[in-house]
Description:
- Strand 7 (176-179), helix 9 (197-202) and strand 8 form a beta-alpha-beta unit.
- By secondary structure, the chain is α/β, with parallel strands linked by helices.
- Helix 4 packs parallel to helix 5 (96-109).
- The chain has an 8-stranded parallel beta barrel with strand order 1-2-3-4-5-6-7-8.
- It has helices at residues 4-8, 18-28, 39-55, 70-80, 96-109, 126-132, 138-151, 164-167, 197-202, 212-215, 220-230; strands at residues 9-12, 34-37, 59-66, 87-91, 114-118, 156-158, 176-179, 207-210.
- The chain has one domain (4-230): Aldolase class I (TIM Barrel, Alpha-Beta Barrel), CATH 3.20.20.70.
- The protein is 44% helix and 16% strand.
- The radius of gyration is 17 Å and the shape is globular.
Amino acid sequence: MTNAFNEKIILALDTPSPKDAWHFLEIVGKEIKYVKVGHRLYFQGGSEFVSELVKNGYNVFLDLKFHDIPNTVAMALQPLMDAGLWSLTLHAAGGRAMLEAAVKERERSRARTRLFGVTILTSHSDESWKEVNPGSSFQDTITARAELCEKAGLDGLVCSPSDLNIIRSHVSSNFLKIVPGIRLERSLDDQMRAQTPGEAVRAGASYLVIGRPLLKAENPLRVIKEIKSQLGED
């Protein structure tokens, strides 16, 4: 039987250091197949850390949210296309030309790295969005950026779980959705639009990014068991 947890969960390795990341991966063992590496660990461990993760069989999701002029982004992606990454992120706010430049660089390198566009950061609420985007509708921005990511040739997008219903009719069903902001229960932290694993999957999430609920748990394996239960596994 397919392990839904193993195929859907991306562990956000938001640990203080690469050493702490390896220690946590030893604890959870083969339960984890996908790992997200963000700015902190990438700046600390660099390409060597990422290469070791790949060599150890992990599907690495490099979440650096590239956002710059098209040529700069394409040049930045050149060395990453040879790193064996499962996927990386680009900020959809960079526009069509930037996104298409990334796709062309992947085609040139013949890499299999999947490209995901970030619509709006999950830390945003309606109020905080208006502060930096006055006159721009929150919902219209999400749908426009989702459509743009697909038209530009990306493999999917990163969006809040509560945005899944908004974008469903604007992208094809096989367009992948990586969903952060996952909590085992409703909580108040910097993820303003969070949902539980079960809620997100039922809404159409392809992958769930889970960090703090696992990293801060006294017993991570018990939390994994709870998540499996929410996903309908025995």
